[in-house]
Design brief:
The complex is a heterodimer of chains A (about 250) and B (about 400). Chain A is an alpha+beta fold and about 250 residues long. Chain A has a single domain, classed as Peroxisomal Thiolase, Chain A, domain 1 (3-Layer(aba) Sandwich). Chain A has helices at about 20-25, 45-50, 55-65, 70, 85-95, 105, 115-120, 135-150, 215-220; strands at about 1-10, 75-80, 130, 155-165, 180-190, 195-200, 230, 235-240. In chain A, β7 and β8 (about 235-240) form a beta hairpin. The chains are: A alpha+beta (about 250), B alpha/beta (about 400).
Chain lengths: ~250, ~400
C-alpha cells in the first residue's frame, strides 16, 4: 500500500460547516440537504459573484485546508463526478433555442473551472488537475493526488472532492441521493499528520452502495476507530488503512 | 547520444490514432509530413448562420457494443476507432500482467456532449430527453469508464479534464501510476469530438478563424477546431520511445486567456527539461501549442525565446488536424512519437509548419520547420496550454533498451 500523511481536512455541507458539526455528523450521520452554498466571504466580491455553488463549496474547503502561504504552494487536484455539467446543460438549452452563448459562462463551464479559479484566488502557479471517474470519483481523485506526490514528493497536495445535485433536466438519471457537499484533504509524503495507507484491488462483484457519498464515508472512517475502509462498488475497490501505532 | 537522466523507464509502447487526416498512424504520418491540409470541411450545422471549417473524422465509426449502450456516443466511437488498432498488444498485455494491473487514464473536454445536444433539443421540443440518452455518454468519467468496462480492466480508470492540456496530463498521470506501482500498464490518451457547445463557445470568445487556422502568421485570425482520438500503451519497459520529462504549471491569471508574458508556458517547458535532465539545446523538435490566436502565439514564442535562447525547430500541427482541444495533448504527443518512430541514417523527419509563410514580425527568432526538413535524431518536446491556465509540456525521446 502507498503511505501518505494527512495534514488537515475540511468539509462543507448545508448546515454542517465547522469541525464540531462534522464530528457530530460523523458520530450520528443524518440526511444531507440537497441544496445550499457557503458564504465564501474570503473571496473578492467580484469573483464571488460569478461563483456557482460548486465553486463556492470547492474553494471554501480548499481555503480552509491550507494557510495563506501554503495555499500558493500546494499542488491541487479537483475531483467531481458532475463538475459543471449543470452549467453545460444551461448552455445546451440555449443552443437548442438557437440563442448565442455568453463567453464567460462558456469558459466557466469547463471541468477545470474551479481549479482555474483556485489558482487565481490563491495566486497558485503549481501543477493542477481536474478529474472525474463516475461512481469512483473520490477514490480516483485520491489516487491522482498521490501521483502529484510521486512527481513532487517535497510539496504537499490539496485534494478537493465536491458535487452538487444534477439539475432538473437530468434528475433521476443517476442512482445516488441528491446532496451538496465538499471535502478537502491536505496530503504530504512525510512529516506531521495522520499516516494513511492506500491501495486498489479488483472488486469482488456488486457490493452494496454505501449510504453516504464516498468522500463522506471516508471522513466518517477517518474520525472513527476503525482500522480499515474499502469503497467502490464496481470493477475495483479502494482500500485505506490506519497503520497501528506501535 | 546525450546523457539522459530518466528517473524510471516509461515506455510509450504502442500508439493508436484517428483524426481528420486518417484512421491509422500509417495513413496519418505521410499526410502530416507533406503538410496536407485537405482534412478540413465546411459545416453549416454547428453555429447558426455561420459556415465553419472543421477538421472532422469523415465516414462511419465503429459502434459501441450493445451491452454497453449506455456509453454509445460519437466520442466513444472515436475512441473505439483508435482502440481497434491496438487490440492485439492490449490482449497480449492482459495475458502478461492481468486485468487487475492495467489502468485507464483518458483526457477529454467534450465527452459525449454532441449526443447530449440531441437529447436536450428533444427535451426543449417535447419535454422529455431522447430515449437513447444515458448520463454515461455525457459525464466526463464515462470516457475512461467505457474503456475499462469494455476491456474488463480493474485497475484505476479516470478521466482528466483540464481543457486543452487534458490529453498531455493523461500521459503524466499514467507515468506516475506506473512509478507508484499501482499499475503495470496504462492505456492513456484522449478523445474529443466536434459539437455545438465548443464551436459556439469559442465563437462567443471570438477566437475562431474563418478559414484554416494560420498559426504564427501576421495574417492569422484564430483557431480551427478538430476532433479525434490518440491512445498509448504505457508500460515500464526500458528502451524504445520513452516519456522522459513532464512539466506542469498553473497561471493564476485568467479563465480563458493566457498570461501574455508566457510565464506559465515557460515554467512548464523548464519543468519538463529539468525532469528529463536535459539542456534546452538538446531538443531536436518542438511541437507548438500553436493555436493560431495572437495571444497564444506571442506568449508561446516569448516563453520559447527565454527558455531556449535560440529557438529549436518548431511546428504547429493545428493547421493540419485542427485544434482537437481535450485530445490535443495526446494527439501531438502521438505526432512526436511518429517523428521518433523510424529514424533513418540517424536522422528524423520533421512535420512542416503549414501556414501562409508570412511570419508575424513579433515572433522574430522562432525557427519554423519547412517542407522536407530532417535533423539528427534527438529528444522532442510538445506544449499544451489550457483554459483556466493549465499548462503541460512533455518530452519524448528514443532510448536504447
Amino acid at each position: 500500500m502507498i503511505p501518505v500523511h494527512l495534514r488537515k481536512w475540511a468539509a462543507w455541507a448545508p448546515g454542517i460547516d465547522d469541525v464540531r458539526a462534522w464530528h457530530a455528523w460523523c458520530a450520528e450521520p443524518k440526511e444531507l440537504a440537497a441544496e445550499g452554498r457557503p458564504e465564501a466571504s474570503f473571496l473578492p466580491a467580484l469573483l464571488r459573484r460569478r461563483c456557482s455553488s460548486l465553486t463556492r463549496i470547492m474553494l471554501t474547503v480548499a481555503f480552509e485546508c491550507c494557510g495563506e502561504d501554503e495555499r500558493a504552494q500546494v499542488g491541487s487536484v479537483f475531483a467531481s463526478r458532475h463538475g459543471n455539467i449543470n452549467e453545460s446543460i444551461e448552455l445546451l438549452e440555449r443552443l437548442a433555442l438557437q440563442q448565442p452563448l455568453s463567453p464567460t459562462r462558456f469558459s466557466h463551464s469547463v471541468h477545470n473551472a474551479q481549479a482555474g479559479l483556485f489558482s487565481i484566488a490563491a495566486g497558485n502557479r503549481r501543477a493542477s488537475s481536474s478529474i472525474a471517474a463516475e461512481a469512483d470519483t473520490f477514490g480516483c481523485g485520491y489516487l491522482e493526488a498521490l501521483t502529484f506526490l510521486e512527481r513532487a514528493p517535497e510539496s504537499s497536495v490539496l485534494l478537493v472532492m465536491a458535487d452538487v445535485p444534477l439539475s432538473a433536466a437530468f434528475a433521476g438519471l443517476v442512482d445516488e441521493p441528491p446532496a451538496s457537499y465538499g471535502l478537502g484533504l491536505l496530503l504530504a509524503s512525510d512529516g506531521p499528520g495522520t499516516r494513511l495507507d492506500f491501495g486498489i484491488t479488483a472488486g469482488g462483484g456488486a457490493a452494496p452502495r454505501p449510504r453516504w457519498p464516498d468522500a463522506l464515508e471516508f471522513l466518517r472512517w477517518l474520525e472513527s476507530p476503525e482500522p480499515h475502509l474499502a469503497l467502490g462498488a464496481g470493477l475495483r475497490r479502494f482500500e485505506w488503512a490506519k497503520p497501528s501505532k506501535a | 547520444m546525450p546523457l539522459m537522466r530518466t528517473r524510471r523507464p516509461c515506455s510509450l509502447a504502442a500508439l493508436a490514432m484517428v483524426n481528420a487526416l486518417g484512421r491509422h498512424p500509417d495513413e496519418i504520418w505521410p499526410r502530416l509530413i507533406r503538410g496536407d491540409q485537405s482534412g478540413f470541411r465546411a459545416r453549416e450545422d454547428l453555429i447558426p448562420g455561420r459556415k465553419l471549417l472543421v477538421a472532422e473524422v469523415a465516414g462511419a465509426l465503429p459502434a459501441v457494443p450493445d451491452r454497453l449502450r449506455q456509453y454509445a456516443c460519437r466520442n466513444n466511437s472515436l475512441t473505439l476507432a483508435a482502440l481497434e488498432q491496438i487490440e492485439k498488444p492490449i490482449s497480449d498485455l492482459i495475458l502478461a500482467v492481468g486485468r487487475d494491473r492495467i489502468g485507464v487514464v483518458m483526457g477529454t473536454s467534450t465527452s459525449g456532449v454532441s449526443d447530449a445536444e440531441i437529447a436536450i433539443r428533444h427535451r426543449v421540443a417535447t419535454g422529455a430527453l431522447a430515449r437513447s440518452f444515458h448520463y454515461s455518454q455525457l459525464e466526463f468519467g464515462g470516457v475512461a469508464g467505457f474503456l475499462a468496462e469494455l476491456l474488463g480492466l480493474a485497475g484505476p480508470a479516470y478521466t482528466i479534464s483540464t481543457a486543452c492540456s487534458s490529453g498531455a496530463r493523461a500521459l503524466v498521470s499514467a507515468r506516475s501510476l506506473l512509478a507508484l506501482g499501482v499499475c503495470d500498464a496504462v492505456i492513456a490518451g484522449a478523445t474529443d469530438s466536434l459539437c455545438g457547445l465548443t464551436t459556439n463557445g469559442f465563437a462567443a470568445l471570438q477566437v475562431l478563424s474563418d478559414g484554416i487556422t494560420n498559426p504564427s502568421s501576421a495574417n492569422r485570425d484564430g483557431l480551427t477546431l478538430g476532433e479525434g482520438s490518440a491512445l498509448f500503451l504505457v508500460t515500464r519497459d526500458a528502451g524504445g520511445i520513452q516519456l522522459c520529462g513532464v512539466g506542469e504549471s498553473s497561471e493564476a491569471h485568467h479563465m480563458s486567456a493566457p498570461d501574455p508574458d508566457g510565464f506559465g508556458a515557460e515554467q512548464a517547458m523548464r519543468g519538463a527539461l529539468a525532469d528529463a535532465g536535459m539542456r534546452p539545446a538538446e531538443i531536436a523538435y518542438l511541437n507548438l501549442h500553436g493555436t493560431g490566436t495572437s495571444l497564444n502565439d506571442r506568449m508561446e514564442s516569448s516563453a520559447i525565446s527565454r527558455v531556449f535562447g535560440v529557438s529549436p525547430l518548431c511546428s504547429s500541427t493545428k493547421s493540419l488536424v485542427g485544434h482537437t482541444l481535450g485530445a490535443a495533448g495526446a494527439m501531438e504527443a502521438g505526432f512526436c512519437w511518429l517523428v521518433l518512430r523510424e529514424p533513418s541514417a540517424g536522422e528524423i523527419d520533421l512535420i512542416p509548419h503549414a501556414y501562409d509563410g508570412q511570419l508575424d514580425p513579433e515572433l522574430v527568432g522562432l525557427r519554423l520547420v519547412g517542407p522536407g526538413m530532417h535533423v539528427p535524431t534527438g529528444p522532442v518536446m510538445t506544449n499544451s496550454f489550457g483554459f483556466g491556465g493549465n499548462n503541460c509540456t512533455l518530452i519524448l525521446a528514443r532510448l536504447p533498451a
